[in-house]
Fold this sequence. Notes:
The structure holds three protein chains of three kinds. Chain A is of the alpha+beta class. Helices cover 30% and strands 25% of the residues of chain A. In chain A, strand 13 (277-288) and strand 14 (294-306) form a beta hairpin. Chain B has a five-stranded mixed β-sheet, sandwiched between helices.
Amino acid sequence: MSILGNRVLRREDPKFLTVGGTYVGDIPIEGALHASFVRSSLAHGRIESVDLEEAVAAPGVVAVYTAADLGLAPLAPMGLLNQEMKRPLLAEGVVRYVGEPIALILAESPAAAVDAAEAVIVDYEPLEAVVDPSQALEGGVLLFPEAGTNVVFDLSSEEDPELFSGCEVVVSQRIVNQRLAPCPLEVRSAAAEMVEGRLRFYASTQGAHGVKDELCSALGLPPEQVHVISPDVGGGFGAKGGPYVEELLIGWCARETGRPVRWTESRSESMLGLGHGRAQIQQVTIGGTRSGRIEAYRLSILQDSGGYADVGAVLPFLTRQMTPGVYDIERVEFHSRSVLTNTMPTVAYRGAGRPEATAAIERAVDCFAAAAGLDPAEVRRANFIPKASFPHTTAMGTEYDSGDYEKAFDLALEMAGYDELRAEQERRRQRGDRCQLGIGLSSYVEITAPVSGGEFGAVEVRPDGKVIVRTGTSPHGQGHATAWSMIVAEQMGVPLEQIEVIHGDTDIVPRGGGTGGSRSLQLGGSAVHKAAVDVVERARRLAADELEANPDDIVLDRSLGLFHVAGTPAITKSWAELGAASLEREGEPLAAETDFEHPGSTFPFGTHVAVVEIDTETGQTRLVRHIAVDDAGRIMNPLLAEGQVHGGVAQGAAQALLEEFVYDTEGNPLTTNLADYSFISAAELPSFETAFTETPTSRNPLGSKGIGESGTIGSTPAVHNAVVDALAHLGVRHVDMPATPERVWRAIREAKGAA
Amino acid sequence: MSLELEITLNGKKVAAEVEERTLLVHFIRDVAGLKGTNIGCDTTSCGACTVLLDGRSVKSCTLLAAQAEGRQVTTIEGLSPEAGDGSDPAASERMHPVQRAFHENHGLQCGYCTPGMVLAIASLIDEAEPGTLDEEAIRLGLEGNLCRCTGYHNIVAAALAAARQTGAARR
Amino acid sequence: MIPAPFEYARPSSLEEAIGLLAERGEEAKLLAGGHSLLPLMKLRLATPALLVDIGRLEELCYVRDEGDVVAVGALTTHDTASRHELLRQKIPVFSAVAGQIGDPQVRHRGTVGGSVAHGDAASDLPAVLLALGGSVVAVGPDGRREIPADQFHLGFLETALAEDEVLLELRLPVPAHPAYGFEKLTKRAQDWAIVGAVAVRREEGAGLGLINMASVPLRAAAVEEALAAGAPPAEAAERADEGTEPAGDLNASPEFRRHLARVLTRRALEKAFA
């Protein structure tokens, strides 16, 4: 019987449950200096002076650095972006957002480092700040005057004036996909030390190899001089996709001082230092027939990139690919501009560009259904890309691999009891209940492993029978050790306990693309799968030699993990015996290494149904049910896959209802800690109702697609649509996210006033 | 300036001279070297630093070490010491019912909130009147423990499962 | 996350504590549970030079039945108050509200005296004390004095307590009828109230306390008057925002807060008179 598809409990749990994980801040390093940063308190200004005198003299302080001390070249934006907008590692002359690091202090204790940072006085000449992306686009205030624009990345073209001609129903809506703080529970942390002339760097990251590359590039070091280790990582959600300037500087400090250096930020610091997510202003127009056929769709977005050209600036590229979602729409247009503003730079956040696409099309479809007077479920059903047409190339040129959108949709509606929910909604409307019911749908398709690049995997059998798996992706909660063990156990017929999975160490794993864009299973898992297949093949040949038989006649009994000649199961060779034989006969371990080439992205999909109750007097919204039917191809371990969906749904619902990172008009951040930023808790959520349909992909040997981000992508528009749906009979057509009590109350009041 | 303090951590007396401003969580992590207790925020919001003080859940970031002087503090390492450090499967069988329920219900992912969650739930169950804990009570009881990975679904399931074992769950 | 340096004293008696406060004046701060003060110190929004830790003074931990008043010692935790049989029986509004403050961990440490003495208009307990028409007892170098709840809160985080006074107990009059209404709107369960209303039955009418409707905790005097004059609850509740000065912030505009005050007051009254 196959182990794949079973609810295998996580092998990594007991350590976390008994003594806790080992995160960067937990790693003991003798004699380390502690770093702290002096950060800009102004959104935009020229630095007139930095008075370090008191800090330098403070007890325990070893060194204080500003930009002039570094001698490091500024960081160039990634290739697609405006190359004029380079980022210095510490602010040089100008600060561009509140929280930008200006000076770095090294001290003998964390308290001494923080005390000294408080003693630094920075004088600024304030410059006008631009916070609203629309104003940034106008260019009245430029963050990089030498660039002559705030536009970092432009994907816009001439609009087709005829796009909606012939459409009987056309609706437009402005949608704010608000700025969020990713908030992994573990904030950023780094440690660095010189070991035998090499830089050893501990990173809380989604990819150790990416950190290594950037350290080499920023500090001018050859690869062999840098060793990056990512131990347990307390969540990343995209925002730990690459190293931040602070982390690069910790590496620099260890080299500069010759002493170990460590840094762990506070949450208040993290809210101003870990990249933010989303932050798009969208304008949608959708048109079609009165009977519900969608004929044309235009999405125009303004992406807020924050103070520098970071990953967030390029994400509209992914939004673009997913513009029409699950619908077969003939005429589709996409325009986007990414602009700098005097705010925290934006980066990838769970979904990274795709939730924004789904949020836009799914709100648009509901707006269209409302305008046409149709049930949003019927409009969706009428416009799905049909099952028979896969692989399907959309009007944006994206090739979706496989799909059965209606199947997931039907199951979701059935689980929700859609018709009964509508009947209950009608009863409450008729009675004029204070507490109204809203039902929101979202049918999504997303792209996983969206970026090219393969993945490394290796399997080695030791003479004691232990199997060592090395992988180029690494977990921050996903359960790689369990999932990769299952894949290897399936191929080799060894018990899970005999398998050890190694990741996140650049000295042991030669290459790796890390964990992000839901790429791990389909690339990293496939690489490990391929390596296991290769090892079985090598072992078969070895067994043939040992048993003096033809390799073609050797079979692996996977239930026992033993090789024998077909028909004579009594004489066997175990993995341990073959591991030893390999060393003996060939002088090398029984092992296989592979680089799984990127075979094309995959496109998971599904339908979410959210049910909300809204107190129409206070505007308070409660998510009372959330049904998620997701299809990520073949499911390796439903327990882990469900876990990914649950977490994603909570984050997605949080965007619809609660979370928003807010700046005032001067660029002062207002939600700088977890008391002010409404990180969602258990008390605001129900238990979720989840199911999977399984439509395999042919783009990898596992038949699997990514599942890490689907929950976030599917849930936000479902909950958002449910909010508007609850108020539709009162004349409300849209409420921006997050649907706070006051926003809901105002929407009702304005609709009443308009009626 | 400094204080001489002695705190009983997981049944063992730990004495040290510390600055007055030392928070209990820093005493646990940096003085006693017990790294299972994590810090997730600085506003008493997230509960990652939850420990038991004389058997009741508290946020160790919002106590001075001095306030815990002479008292009993239990961290995740001390909840079921007989269960070892997770490396021995036989020992892991001896985990506390809440720890076991977390494992069996996939109540953890990145693990960062987990020690605080487990101790908060252990306290919640311990304090509940028999037969009173239902999903709503558990969700409200966890309002001060944030998790970014699990969406709380499996944490709540684990808490209910553990409460059923002790008789705290609503029948 | 790391407070600025300070001195720490743990007096063994109330007299000693008062002596320290008198000696050090405004640079000293009392520490009880620490759940109002330490969060501010960690963000360095408060930097007292001396902390006077009274958290172990057993003489401030009690709940005493005095017939028509229940006296609650300042160091009683929210958790203890929420579970205390005498309170649950005689003044259920107090134990119920105490049981909804913050989260369980906060309730294990936070004290009722600390909550009232901190004087935050967004706290729940001061509004209960106002609705009940209760008082607080303070003790200083010149002895004890009783301060009625509606004279205790003077301004933003400012109370009638002198620098060298310690809040000793809350005096809660036993209401005419145990039924009460407590309504608060929060973003998340653990958050402070955006607005809240507490209604307690009196011989005639009701006592009404409002949370977060001005820089200080307030009594909804206009509602109380209307009820005493015989107005039905729904009508009286329409006057809930009279005399209030709600702030505008991230969570609500003043206009929305006024609306909420009326709605939540009506609901609190409906529950109290159900």
